[in-house]
Design a protein that fits this description.
The chain has 150 residues and is of the alpha+beta class. The chain contains four helices and seven strands; from the N terminus they run E-H-E-E-E-H-E-E-E-H-H. It has a single domain, classed as 2-Layer Sandwich (Alpha-Beta Plaits). Strands 1, 2, 3, 4 and 5 form a five-stranded antiparallel β-sheet that branches. Strands 6-7 form a two-stranded antiparallel ribbon. Helix 1 runs antiparallel to helix 2 and helix 3 runs antiparallel to helix 4. The termini are far apart. The mean pLDDT is 90.
Length: 150
């Protein structure tokens, strides 16, 4: 199954955290098929914090959705992520954006990511690697969501 994962970091050596996360994802989740360039963005939500480095990757994985989530959470924890404040600073943030065309709406996992269409820090790198991918909930392409946001 192909999935899109957004990565972000705004604490410490941000480049190193992204690189370590990519390495761990390759080892524990699956093959990275595509990767966007890295962009620097202002913080979202709680804005009184350092800027983020963000990127999106496409991964081929054999993991089921809940196992994928558990694995990404474990990678975050292993890289020093502390969940002290909602939208607070973090060494690494790994969000499942899409799992092919699946729609999942549980308390634990929501795919596509529910606030995706409001987040340029996800849409910009996502549009670089999958501009024509059609969001299964909204019925529009990634490129069109980005245009609507701007």
């Amino acid at each position: 199954m192909r999935c899109m994962i957004a990565l972000g970091s705004n604490i410490g050596d941000r480049e190193s955290y992204l690189a370590s996360a990519l390495e761990k994802i390759s080892e524990r989740v699956g093959d990275i098929i595509k990767r966007s360039s890295v962009i620097e963005t202002r913080a979202y939500g709680f804005t009184e914090q350092d800027d983020f480095l963000n990127m999106v990757i496409e991964v081929e994985t054999g993991l089921k959705p809940d196992r994928l989530l558990d694995t990404l959470l474990a990678i975050e924890t292993g890289l020093g992520r502390v969940r002290a404040k909602h939208w607070g600073p973090r060494t690494i943030d790994l969000d499942i954006i899409y799992l092919e065309n699946e729609i999942i709406d549980t308390e634990r996992l929501k795919v596509p990511h529910p606030d995706l269409h409001n987040r340029d820090f996800v849409l910009v790198p996502l549009s670089e690697i999958a501009p024509d991918f059609k969001d299964p909930v909204r019925g529009v392409s990634v490129a069109d969501m980005l245009k609507a946001l701007r």
